[in-house]
Amino acid sequence: MNYYKLLLKPQDVLVDVAEGRTLKEAMNDAGLVFDFPCGGRGTCGKCRVKISKGVGTPVAKEQELIPSKELDAGVRLACMTAVYNDLTVELPDQTKLQHHILIDSEKKDMQVDPHLKKVFVEVDKPSRETHSSDWRRLKKSLVKQGYMGSELESSVAILRQMPDLFRAANYRITAVMFENVVAGLEAQDTSKSMLGMAFDIGTTTIVGYLLDLYSGAELCVVSTLNPQTSFGADVISRLTFVGHEEKGLMKLQAAVVEAINKLIAEAAERAAVTRSQIYGISIAANTCMHHLFLGINPQSIAVAPYVPAVSEPLVVDALELKIDINQAGKVFVLPNIAGFVGADTVAVLLATELDRSEDVKLVIDIGTNGEIALGSRGKIVACSAAAGPAFEGAQISSGMRGAVGAIDHVYYRDKLEYTVIGGGKPLGICGSALLDTVAGLVELGIINKRGKFIAYEQLNDQAAKKYKENLIQHEGQGAFLLADAGITGHGRPIMITQKDIRELQMAKGAIAAGIRILMKTCGVETEDIKEVLLAGAFGNYLNPHSACAIGLIPEDLESKIQMIGNAAGTGAKLALLSLSQFRRAADIAETVDFVELGSYPKFNSIFGECTYFTVK
Amino acid sequence: MNYYKLLLKPQDVLVDVAEGRTLKEAMNDAGLVFDFPCGGRGTCGKCRVKISKGVGTPVAKEQELIPSKELDAGVRLACMTAVYNDLTVELPDQTKLQHHILIDSEKKDMQVDPHLKKVFVEVDKPSRETHSSDWRRLKKSLVKQGYMGSELESSVAILRQMPDLFRAANYRITAVMFENVVAGLEAQDTSKSMLGMAFDIGTTTIVGYLLDLYSGAELCVVSTLNPQTSFGADVISRLTFVGHEEKGLMKLQAAVVEAINKLIAEAAERAAVTRSQIYGISIAANTCMHHLFLGINPQSIAVAPYVPAVSEPLVVDALELKIDINQAGKVFVLPNIAGFVGADTVAVLLATELDRSEDVKLVIDIGTNGEIALGSRGKIVACSAAAGPAFEGAQISSGMRGAVGAIDHVYYRDKLEYTVIGGGKPLGICGSALLDTVAGLVELGIINKRGKFIAYEQLNDQAAKKYKENLIQHEGQGAFLLADAGITGHGRPIMITQKDIRELQMAKGAIAAGIRILMKTCGVETEDIKEVLLAGAFGNYLNPHSACAIGLIPEDLESKIQMIGNAAGTGAKLALLSLSQFRRAADIAETVDFVELGSYPKFNSIFGECTYFTVK
């Protein structure tokens, strides 16, 4: 896939955008706050931006809503402009180029305080008087910079560099310090340059953020499919692979490390930096991906009592993990909470600052597993709900990931309408459209409490009868047609089958049961919850009303829902930029109470209830 | 070369002996105290031992000195019995199977206190209540054993072992601890088994001692030629190789590591243990060998101001250096003092305890470089004298190392007599015989103060005239014939030439000047020096009288000379067995004052004087 550079003015933020993504999606992906009053449907005309470089032909909706003079000047709608070349876009001045969550954070926490520090020193030349060794003279220089001489440590790898480097650099040396350890040495004063990358390793997708460790500026974002998917789509199938395939663990580890190294190379190329300028990477991942990344057998996570091998935060030499950055580089691995609530949840909590919140908040990161946390300062409980892959479009007859060609939103208007990612012919539906569709079916009474299609003749709601054409039979059961074979990209119809609805019920039932059990555990009612923060790609994309209409999230909470983007990624960034945030992650992992849903009393009946729909 | 097992009774000490070495030499090599009143010449008949297994035919001197009944019972002279098969030897009961130096040491220091500790724990099984990770439960077990939970550390390599190992061992685990770091994990209780090896890496020879880290018992001794000799015989030629040959440094490092790994394998095989039972090795070496072993460029040692890259003691993972022992194993590298006074000298000082001595002592370790230390508790000065390889038989026309066929001692009796290592035909002379020969030439006035041969006609001493046959001409200059071509193993004459004497003058002049300068630096006279301790293979082998007669060591000190065997090896053993001794080594390296001879005022004239002989 091609990527283009999107330069956002006046903030001068550079974002890399996959071909065909809209400006709305690109800003959303980057976690930027921008207002789309009509939800990005191209109807309100409010999301105007000015494209000062690279502007293309306006689409019909833009011609309709924007005066031609402004069109000529490059004004476009962010929700309608797809990216097919490098663009420079001027945003309205008040646009906040930050995550919601970062805006809410106390400023002091965002102060950059990296784990690694660079210290430029002029080392004494060797002297006949003292016969002092290279290492001793370096220590002397570092003591002048405030280090404790007796605590300074080095390694054979560093000692090997000293003699030649010192002499070649005429004793002008930049030491890369990790606490009291000299982790790297460089010739001359390079103390102004230090980059890092934060990674969120998802079961399906790996996202990496290249950051300047001094300014905190994000230089670019890169992402790729987790190549472990070729060994198994979900956590359980990968655990099976580890158990049955010889050297399976090391194969999976090598695959993810290779993918990360490719992302590092890609990010370095795009930002026009070298890999050796990158000194640290941070890792947020679920417990299984965490263990696989480190090459630790994760199988104990899958069997009762579901304990991980390690939950503490780790700092590992990049060399040991074969991560291709500066040879002094470190890998900062966020801690896990339990077998199914991993470092990705810790990262989300780090970003959302639930541990510092006076208000009770509910945080949901929906992926193949839904990680849910509820609480405020003093007490947070978390659980993992096995939603399965329905929200990601898998196990759904016409399902697909949220890529070009996916129907992403569905609207029950005079007739059924939908939007397609990239704007072309539809190829399938992604999770957000599944939610929209089923929400409509529930609200129109087309399916009943148990999710079963009602025969057309028995429909009560007149509005429902408008969609007669969409109500079809498939394999002897009711189904709902979204796009006829004649208008799809592949010539097959796109529909929601009875089985698809069952899959969705399982998925939403798992999440809803998790929320209900956490609320019971905390003794919290919906009115006590001040905010619902939806994290993750899917959480960021769904229509909150649809989520509530199907009962994924309690209806009372609809108005409290906020999308917070890839909060796990944001947490990984925080942990990379700031030692104190990394330490805070350890405290979070230590104090969050894990609720194991499977052993919760009456879990099965609660889950069963939660698979139902609330029909008016 | 073949090696045979020598079992010494009643102490049950097993020593490995190279083919052809005498029992005297074998005991000497192993640092055992045994009395040879005639110096091992086979004349006094006092060094009787009983060979209860593997005895061979007695040599003439034994038949002469031992009654036939005793001969039949296996009684032999230790100085005359060469080893050509496995032997069991019964020593007189009073034989002390210890180094001199260890006898003198305070008992408490020999208490075994290894760096690595093994702790057997029964780790809690995983529980549904706590969801506590494997690592956390291991920490809990270690805390019960007195460790501080918050200070315990692990590594990815160890974490990788936990899940499978814990379950396979049913949570009965032995942790190998290095301070607060879990360095290794083993199934079940292996806490009773931990071995180590101490290495003395010489420029020419590498010696390794396999030790039980709990009892301190020595299981066997192995040695080999330093394979770096094929890249250069001495330190300077190896430095040149590093400077000129691509990847020269890494080639030299790989060579020494390979040799050490072979010695480890050999020692393990002989002692019937596995390499994985070996958890630590210690390294004593001169500064250049030290740097080459670690893969650190040593070239700065060779150019003014002669500083090493590192002087501090180091603890390195065996894996990092590719040392083939237990994967949790550590390498303990003794510290250097300066560019030419290395960790071997520190080891000698550790063994001789100069830093604790009330009396002033002079310690000399003669090799290609002579390391000399003088002092007592409170002040020790040390220097390195560039003796060159003459004492090792190199650069000497008929010279050879102290191996089978070497004339090792020379006696001026009615006619010239000598002993040959292994007892066969002579092939050359080694350093000790060179000393004996030249000492006689000096004492008989056959050479003058400047080392020049006097014409036979001008000899004053009647005794000298007895050796008329030996006084020959070679290439137009005087020379001294030791063995005529007709009686040597190779059919060439063995002699000492004028040039050989010049070489010896340079060598002994360097050492003597070093001693003189250290004495001046300390303000010490010969009468202040209570002991002269000669370390190293050559120091252990020379005739003290000869050494004083040629002026290598001041004559007044002759009666104070003690041979202390391979003290560098003993120091390496102490540093391996005891953490406190390893730390003491750091203190020694820190406090010993290094005197750089080359920059000492009037060094050249002092050296020049010291090359002269004192003729009566």
Automatic annotation (TrEMBL), chains A, B:
Domain of life: Bacteria
Domain 2Fe-2S ferredoxin-type: 4-95
Gene Ontology MF annotations: iron-sulfur cluster binding
Pfam families in the record: Fer2, RACo_C_ter, RACo_linker, Raco_middle
PROSITE patterns: 2FE2S_FER_2
The name this protein goes by in its record: Putative metal-binding protein
Species this protein is from: Desulfosporosinus acidiphilus (strain DSM 22704 / JCM 16185 / SJ4)
